[in-house]
Write a structure and sequence with these properties.
The complex is a heterodimer of chains A (about 290) and B (about 650). Chain A has about 290 residues and is an all-alpha fold. Chain A has a single domain (about 1-40, about 65-280), classed as Orthogonal Bundle (MetI-like fold), CATH 1.10.3720.10. Chain A has helices at about 1-10, 20-40, 75-110, 110-125, 130-140, 145-170, 175-185, 185-225, 235-245, 250-280. In chain A, helix 1 (about 1-10) packs antiparallel against helix 2 (about 20-40), helix 2 crosses helix 10 and helix 8 runs parallel beside helix 9. The longest helix of chain A has about 35 residues, at about 75-110. Chain A starts with a helix and ends in an 8-residue tail after the last helix. Chain B is of the alpha/beta class and about 650 residues long. Chain B has 3 domains: about 15-100 and about 180-335, P-loop containing nucleotide triphosphate hydrolases (Rossmann fold); about 115-180; about 360-370 and about 385-615, Rossmann fold, CATH 3.40.50. The longest helix of chain B is centred in the N-terminal third of the chain and has 18 residues, at about 195-215. The two termini of chain B are about 40 Å apart. Classes of the chains: A mainly alpha (about 290), B alpha/beta (about 650). The interface between A and B is medium-sized, with 20 and 34 residues. Chain A: Keywords: Cell membrane, Membrane, Transmembrane, Transmembrane helix, Transport. Chain A: InterPro entries: BP-dependent_transpt_permease, MetI-like, MetI-like_sf.
Chain lengths: ~290, ~650
């Protein structure tokens, strides 16, 4: 997903001016892709091997973020942990937004009984607190990364659907939709070609917000001991395991938390940047 | 009646004196020079009209009079009763707004607070300025509602805005503006959102109030007929400059500037029948880079070399009549004169005449708000409203049938039933004797192709994320089987050229075009499938007069070339007079009168048709209203259930 995100950035003809903010966003996305693909290779030390001689050492030139109770380098674990953390978050956000967008498009455009039925199901899903619903699903399906993705996507689904539906409700009354109908276009064409481009901007922003929420939600799940299991260096798991040592070694929970914060903020900024470049069709070229 | 001779010489202080007003949006040389060096004065009790199309700067000037220019830089002087508006302290300014000058806006619904009773809203203004007690403010508020001729003012005062009709709301806004006896009323298109019959009564009211209260009026409008009904003197604005000024009779009946003459020729009226309208080619100049010469030169039919080099000044062409044109004294030789306002009953040329009707509308009915099937709690029982009630009409091949009506008459619902966008409750649409499916999705491809639609609002009718090439090319792909590539592009270019757009528009998105250009794209899209009938739903009502003329001409040309029939929906009788072969007048879902334009406009039979025609604001100076208008007044004055 990060890959396609950066592709949009580079190939879109809307991406006219690569200003400082744009370059920073591009750099951030590339860095994340690099870490996801080659994290374990880039990390200076092993993320998994025990080193009892160096357990619970504070930050030093050799171990910039310190070591945990087994002597594993936290810096290396964070780098290697990018993949399990972000892949789950990106996949969950993508699946949730995909489900939500298709549901919202259909419900908003078709309307009537279909809308009523679909949205009541969404309301039911939404009436569960997000974390409880996700826990329920993972417990039912079994602790597996794929199931965590499904659980988080289920949490996101109704929220994205509501958002997209509200925009489609407005768009569907516009005359260009009447024009397409009077031309004899199929429903699928109207949904995919006429409406979808107009909600794309919303989807992009929604997706970037959802990635952040997914990182936090999967961290919460990991923190509760559901989902990814040790010794995977997922950031949420590291925060959970580290917090029992917080009085002895503050660096155990703090650095993984910082990593989550940095990626969350970075994703939000990239989303904002994307929103601005997608906002006007044609990018408002001078006439 | 005419206040003009009185003020021309009078040395008495003007109510409003604007000198050298310039307003620029944005800084530096790239700033948008929206208003440039505009000067005019309004004597006490005088009504002054500012005419201009969109982008002329007329609303900017109106707001500047109340010093409401949040983003612009203002230079020049605005004197209200001799006091400089630009130099006032915020306190003085707040005191002057309402007491010396007050504003009446285009949309009464958004000028009124929907959550407060109208009487209270007026009383609030009075208390603000006069510090009276509640009871006396309320009493004055009721008196004002009576003054704007609302029936049962004491009862109306207790109502909320949504319980009043559009015309009644505008009266409330006028009452509110009068609350503190201002000396100047600024009216920004006060009747533009209203039906023609309601408009006529509001204009009467404005005239009555002017004579009763002696209040001066700055009247902003794009509609020359409306201005002629109210104003003593008129200024014509083009691209932020006053190009002509004089008495209403001088400017509107004997214009001496090419732009004003162009506007008059572009104005469709019911007197000038089948004449081809003369549009003004081109578009407004980019006001970020103002040309050194005359701003109108690029669009002027009488342009000379000097026009591009030297900016003309406002020079007198008669007593109190000024024109900003180098050729002001030779225009008659350079330009075709304003077409005489005589009724010519020559019918519109039609390619095919008579014969079997192309489209038949047979007994169409459609209601809204059907009652729920079960009487359960929480389900409100609503009586259905019959939007279209047993309408039967024929359209001959190659001819235009115009359906005319005011808002709520059901004319758009009828159009949508014909296009298959709405399912009628009863009745048939027949195309060449074949009954069409009620919904467009169920019609065959050739049937879908035969019927196309042009929409009212060019901004909403085009997908903002599609290029022009894709918008116009899509019907070709759908009906013509031209998949893609050079063949498709060539057809699209041909269609664009037929609607006076060129190849350079292919890559444009809707937001990169003007309203008129967008409507041309809509027309090109409608004609891409080579249709037999095009449903035009108010295709020009969102456009300026000069652009409207061009679009109407375009539609007539295309009809003659392709033999297409039109179902033309409009509220504007003047427009209909120019395009229709047959006219049907619609009211409350029913056709009240139908016939040729000559019959309907020349000798209207139904009282409603007569009232509609009587209500059109014409260029003739204010006339005395006869019994028809009296009837209208009671119709509008009735309290809506």
């Amino acid at each position: 997903m990060a890959m396609s995100q950066s592709l949009v950035l580079v190939t879109s003809r809307r991406w006219r001016r690569l200003d400082a903010a744009g370059i920073a966003c591009l750099g951030f996305v590339l860095l994340m892709v690099l870490l996801i693909l080659f994290g374990p290779q880039i990390a200076p030390r092993s993320a998994l091997a025990f080193d009892p001689l160096h357990s619970l050492e504070g930050p030093s030139p050799a171990f910039p973020f310190g070591t945990d109770e087994f002597g594993r380098d936290i810096f290396s674990r964070i780098i290697a942990g990018t993949r399990p953390t972000l892949l789950v978050a990106l996949a969950a956000a993508a699946l949730g937004v995909l489900l939500g967008t298709s549901t919202g498009l259909v419900a908003g455009y078709v309307g009537g009984a279909v809308d009523e039925a679909v949205m009541r199901v969404m309301d039911t899903l939404m009436s569960f607190p997000g974390l409880i619903l996700a826990m329920l699903v993972v417990v039912m399906l079994g602790p597996d990364a794929m199931n965590v993705v499904i659980a988080i996507a289920l949490v996101f689904w109704p929220r994205s659907a509501r958002l997209v539906r509200s925009v489609v409700l407005d768009l569907a009354t516009r005359e260009f939709i009447d024009a397409a109908r009077s031309r004899g276009e199929t429903r699928l064409f109207i949904l995919a070609r006429e409406l979808l481009p107009n909600v794309l901007m919303i989807i992009v922003v929604d997706f970037s917000l959802r990635v952040t929420a997914a990182i936090l939600l999967s961290a919460s799940l990991a923190y509760l001991g559901i989902g990814v299991t040790p010794p995977t260096p997922a950031w949420g798991l590291m925060v959970r395991d580290g917090q029992q040592f917080i009085e002895l070694a503050w660096w155990l929970p703090v650095f993984p938390s910082l990593a989550i914060a940095v990626v969350s903020i970075g994703t939000l900024l990239v989303g904002e940047r994307l929103r601005r470049s997608v906002a006007t069709p044609g990018g408002g070229r001078p006439r | 009646m005419n206040a003009e001779p009185m003020l021309a010489m009078s040395p008495e202080p003007a109510t409003l004196d604007v000198t050298g007003l310039s307003i620029t949006y944005g800084a530096g040389p790239q700033g948008l020079k929206a208003v440039r060096d505009v000067s005019f004065r309004i004597a006490p009790g005088e009504a002054y009209g500012l005419i201009g199309e969109s982008g002329s700067g007329k609303s900017t000037i109106a707001y500047a009079v109340l010093r409401h220019v949040p983003a612009g830089t203002v230079s020049g002087r605005i004197l209200l009763n001799g006091q400089d508006v630009m130099a006032m302290s915020p306190q003085t300014l707040a005191g002057i707004r309402g007491r010396v000058v007050s504003m009446i806006y285009q949309d009464p619904m958004s000028a009124l607070n929907p959550a407060i009773r109208v009487g209270e809203q007026i009383a609030e203004v009075i208390r603000q300025h006069r510090r009276g007690d509640r009871a006396s403010a309320w009493a004055r508020s009721v008196a004002l509602l009576g003054q704007v001729q609302l029936p049962l003012p004491a009862e109306i005062a207790h109502r909320y805005p949504h319980q009043l009709s559009g015309g009644q709301q505008q009266r409330v806004v006028i009452a509110m503006a009068l609350a503190c006896d201002p000396e100047l009323l600024v009216m920004d298109e006060p009747t533009t959102g209203l039906d023609v019959t309601t408009e006529a009564v509001i204009l009467d009211l404005i005239n009555d109030l002017r004579h009763a209260l002696g209040v001066a009026v700055l009247f902003i409008s794009h509609n020359m007929g409306v201005v002629a009904q109210v104003c003593d003197r008129v200024g014509v604005l083009y691209a932020g400059q006053l190009v002509e000024e004089g008495s209403t009779a001088q400017v509107l009946r004997a214009p001496r500037h090419p732009y004003t003459i162009g506007l008059m020729n572009a104005l469709p009226t019911i007197d000038r029948a089948a004449d081809r309208l003369v549009d003004i080619p081109g578009r407004l100049p980019d006001l970020r880079v103002v040309p050194p010469g005359c701003v109108f030169a690029p669009r002027c039919a009488a342009v000379q070399d000097i026009c591009h080099a030297v900016m003309p000044t406002l020079e007198p062409v008669g007593t109190g009549h000024d024109s900003r044109c180098h050729e002001r004294d030779r225009l008659e030789r350079l330009l075709p004169a304003v077409a005489p306002a005589t009724a010519s009953d020559a019918p519109l040329p039609a390619k095919a005449d008579g014969g079997r009707p192309l489209l038949q509308i047979v007994g169409i009915e459609r209601s809204f708000g059907r009652a729920p099937m079960l009487a359960l709690p929480f389900l409100r029982r609503r009586t259905p409203v019959r939007a279209v009630d047993d309408v039967t009409l024929d359209i001959a091949p190659g001819q235009t049938l115009a359906v005319v009506g005011e808002s709520g008459s059901g004319k758009s619902t009828l159009a949508r039933c014909v296009a298959g966008l709405l399912r009628p409750d009863r009745g048939d649409i027949r195309l060449e004797n074949q009954v069409l499916s009620p919904l467009v999705q169920q019609r065959t491809r050739p049937q879908q192709r035969a019927l196309q639609f042009i929409f009212q609002n060019p901004d909403a009718a085009l997908n903002p994320h599609w290029t022009v090439e894709r918008i116009v090319g899509r019907p070709l792909q759908l009906y013509g089987g031209i998949a893609r590539g050079a063949a498709l592009r060539a057809r699209v270019v041909a269609l664009l050229e037929a609607t006076k757009l060129g190849e350079r528009y292919l890559e444009r998105y809707p937001h990169e075009m003007s309203g008129g250009e967008k409507q041309r794209v809509s027309i090109a899209r409608a004609f891409a499938g080579d249709p037999r009938l095009v449903v035009c739903d108010e295709p020009t009502s969102a456009l300026d007069i000069s652009v409207q003329a061009a679009i109407l001409n375009q539609l007539r040309d295309l009809q003659q070339r392709h033999g297409t029939s039109y179902l033309f929906i409009s509220h504007d009788l003047g427009v209909v007079r120019h395009i229709a072969h047959r006219v049907a007048i619609m009211r409350h879902g029913r056709i009240v009168e139908a016939g040729t334009p000559a019959q309907v406009f020349g000798a209207p039979q139904h009282p409603y048709t007569q009232a509609l025609i009587a209500a059109i604001p014409t260029l003739e100076p204010k006339r005395l209203r006869d019994g028809t208008a009296g009837r209208l007044r009671t119709a509008d004055g009735m309290i809506d259930a």
